[in-house]
Amino acid sequence: MQVSLTSVSTSHWRPEHVAAIGDFRAQTIPQASSTTPPKLFEGLYLWDMWPLQQADGHTASYQGWTIWFILSSPAIPDPDLRHGMARIRLVAEKDGQWVDCGNALPDGLNPGSREWAGSAIVDADGEMVTLFYTVAGYPGETETTYAQRLFQTSGKLAFADGKARITNWSAPEESVAADGRDYMIVDQKEGIPGFIKGFRDPAFFRDPASGRDYLLFTGSLAGSQSAWNGCIGIAEAQGEELNGWQLLPPLVSADGLNNEQERPHIVVRDGLYYLFWSTQRKVFEPSAPNGPNGLYAMVAPSLFGPYEPVNGTGLVAANPDAEQFQHYSWWVMDDLQVAGFVDLVGVGNQPVVDDPAWRRAHFGGVPAPRFRIALDGTRAWVDQV
């Protein structure tokens, strides 16, 4: 049975929630090294990452290995420009050992100029992979644009001796398009990372209560009176083949508060739905309360809410004050381990300097040390490194 559009009531992340952030020592990620880490793979920057999952949200495993999709670019002089050349990398990991398996998608398959973040699931046989991802830009463009569309493609996975390979990718198809009514159509030609609008980061979710399939995504509210109009959108699959999706109203709105609720995804724990996202201090509305760079969440008794902020504020895990930019773009796995990437280190609590050489000297561009969170009803905290 389809969800009625009228049955979806948008929940709100409000300034008073963020204003209540006080002592967040229980939500602080341990400080990592302030020294820029060595590249995991020579000559490559790596950032936003997500694991290959089963449809029910469990991380897929192959002979003890997990398979990851990670955005990558050459280690260029200005790390901020990496978004303009991003490709999805296929990587295998076991006990801290990482194996580079090359670009996930073959050259020329993507119907855009770059490949941005998404999610991936594998069928019950462990072979057919469906990748949901963000197509950024358009083919043949001579200047970087910030157009964003949600696409999907499927291919056959082969795995042996720590090496993964996906072949026979299908022609990418647009999953669902922004409607201009609830969600802005994002076709910007210019922008600055952190301040662009969003229609990206598709995250697959199967609701255990109904068995129906959904895509969550980072969106921007259409018709907002604020430039800080971030939201978390949702679309519902119209069949078991996942080849048709219907947009629904946003699950969560941060209108007037925050511009980007990035990489949203849901983990169900003890019958509660925890909706996670990442955001940064710089994308809060300047005159509104703002929170640290961190992992945030709201919790609800069902997929469609109503949602309330975890800890009363939304904050689940934050970088320490002594290294406020150290990690970013977190993904909470089914066992509550949290994966992210090393962003800027050795900065302390000083502001970011707008200088390419400074950024290169401080940018990590590798997977971050993982940590674990604990969840107890409406409460969450950093539990274990």
Automatic annotation (TrEMBL):
<protein>
    <submittedName>
        <fullName>Glycoside hydrolase family 68 protein</fullName>
    </submittedName>
</protein>
<dbReference type="Pfam" id="PF02435">
    <property type="entry name" value="Glyco_hydro_68"/>
</dbReference>
<dbReference type="InterPro" id="IPR023296">
    <property type="entry name" value="Glyco_hydro_beta-prop_sf"/>
</dbReference>
<dbReference type="InterPro" id="IPR003469">
    <property type="entry name" value="Glyco_hydro_68"/>
</dbReference>
<dbReference type="GO" id="GO:0016787">
    <property type="term" value="F:hydrolase activity"/>
</dbReference>
<keyword id="KW-0378">Hydrolase</keyword>
<comment type="similarity">
    <text>Belongs to the glycosyl hydrolase 68 family.</text>
</comment>
